[in-house]
Structures are given as structure tokens and as C-alpha cells.
């Protein structure tokens, strides 16, 4: 009898704890699915009226988990060899580049973005390889965003000046970031 009451009491506490942690997502609170193109104009206005101070963002810090040493590693960005840029356009389109040396780690070319009610940011689209890509992030403040890349790295982005073209016509060498490597 005592075991039955203990099990009931633990189940009750678990249910109470889950309820205290927030509303259970129902059919109208699905945050995993982006708004459809058929959504109303009011939803579009809500998405494009951003709390951001800029539409161009550049990575200023990188964080990743080092499993071997069981700690988080943090490094400053951009560097000569590593940079990341994000464009969040008012029309809901987005572009993202994460470049290491001469290669794209991640690139979102034809992307879309939107904000969740809880300051979450989601980017979806296709990579330069044609594969689908979804990046999740959050608004840290009006002056910073955090994005998680597919390689489980976290980038803190702050407003920057527009980078311009990554290559000049006729360039055959490594990728160039004009914003971080001016002429």
C-alpha cells in the first residue's frame, strides 16, 4: 500500500513540476514549424517589425563545448581566418555565412527568418550544397543575437557594417570578407 501511495505522490509531483515549467505546447503553439506563406498580413507585419538595431550582424564571439576537457571554449571573432556574417532583411529573407579559411563551414543562401514570442530566432533555407538547413538562435538584447550552427557551435553576433561582395570579379584565391579585410 505504501509503494502505491509513493508512486502516486511522485507522479503528482512530476505533473505539478511540468505544469510549473510552462504551458504544454498544443496544436496552436507549435514553435517547430515556420509560419506558412498563407499566413495573414498581420503576421508578416509582426515578423518584419524587429526589435533589432541593424539588419547586418557579424560574429564577435564563438563558444563550443570541449568534451575532452569537459569545458566550454570561447574565442574572439572575427579573425583573419574565421568570420561569420548574418543578414536579416526586413522582408523576412536571410543570408548567413560561417567561413573558416577558404571554405564555408555553413552558408544559408536562400533563407527566411522569423521571431518566436519568447525571443527565439529561426533561420531556414538551403545551404550552398543544396541541402536544407535550419539554424536556431535567440535575441540576447537589441544589440546581440546568438546562433547555434549545425556543428554545435554557438556564435554571438553584434551589429556591423555591411560586408559587400565576398569575391571580386576574376578572383580565384581564397574567399575574402571585405568588411573584415578592407583594401
Question: What keywords describe this structure?
Answer:
183 residues, mainly beta, Lipocalin, 8-stranded antiparallel beta barrel, 9 strands, 15% helix, disordered C terminus, AttH domain-containing protein, signal
Task: Describe this structure as you would to a colleague.
The radius of gyration is 21 Å and the shape is globular. Helix content is 15%, strand content 40%. Residues 13-49 and 165-183 have low confidence and may be disordered. It is built from two helices and nine strands, in the order H-H-E-E-E-E-E-E-E-E-E. The protein is mainly β. Strand 4 and strand 5 (103-115) form a beta hairpin.
Strand order of the largest sheet: 1-3-4-5-6-7-8-9
Give the C-level CATH assignment of the domain at 43-159.
Mainly Beta
Total of DSSP H or I helical runs spanning 4+ residues:
2
Q: Please identify the structural class as seen in this structure.
A: mainly beta
Largest sheet: 8 strands, antiparallel, barrel
Which fold does the CATH topology of the domain at 43-159 refer to? Lipocalin
Binned strand content: 35-45%
Principal-axis shape equals globular
Beta strand count: 9
Using the CA coordinates, give the radius of gyration: 21 Å
Helix content: 10-25%
Residue-averaged pLDDT: 70
Note the topology.
Layout (H helix, E strand, L loop, with lengths): L1 H19 L20 H8 L7 E11 L4 E6 L5 E7 L4 E8 L2 E13 L4 E7 L5 E10 L2 E5 L5 E6 L24
Antiparallel strand pairs: 1-2, 1-3, 1-9, 3-4, 4-5, 5-6, 6-7, 7-8, 8-9
Amino acid at each position: 500500500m505504501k509503494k502505491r501511495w509513493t508512486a502516486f505522490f511522485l507522479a503528482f509531483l512530476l505533473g505539478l513540476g511540468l505544469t510549473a515549467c510552462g504551458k504544454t505546447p498544443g496544436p496552436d503553439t507549435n514553435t517547430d514549424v515556420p509560419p506558412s506563406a498563407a499566413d495573414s498580413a498581420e503576421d508578416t507585419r509582426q515578423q518584419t517589425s524587429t526589435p533589432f538595431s541593424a539588419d547586418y550582424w557579424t560574429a564577435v564571439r564563438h563558444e563550443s563545448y570541449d568534451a575532452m576537457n569537459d569545458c566550454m571554449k570561447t574565442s574572439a571573432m572575427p579573425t583573419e581566418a574565421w568570420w561569420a556574417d548574418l543578414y536579416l532583411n526586413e522582408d523576412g529573407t536571410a543570408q548567413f555565412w560561417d567561413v573558416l579559411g577558404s571554405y564555408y563551414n555553413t552558408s544559408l543562401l536562400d533563407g527566411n527568418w522569423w521571431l518566436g514570442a519568447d525571443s527565439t530566432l529561426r533561420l531556414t533555407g538551403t545551404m550552398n550544397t543544396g541541402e536544407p538547413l535550419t539554424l536556431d538562435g535567440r535575441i540576447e538584447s537589441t544589440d546581440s543575437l546568438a546562433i547555434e550552427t549545425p556543428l554545435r557551435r554557438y556564435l554571438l553576433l553584434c551589429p556591423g557594417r555591411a560586408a559587400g561582395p565576398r569575391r571580386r570579379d576574376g578572383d580565384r584565391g581564397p574567399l575574402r570578407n571585405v568588411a573584415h579585410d578592407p583594401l
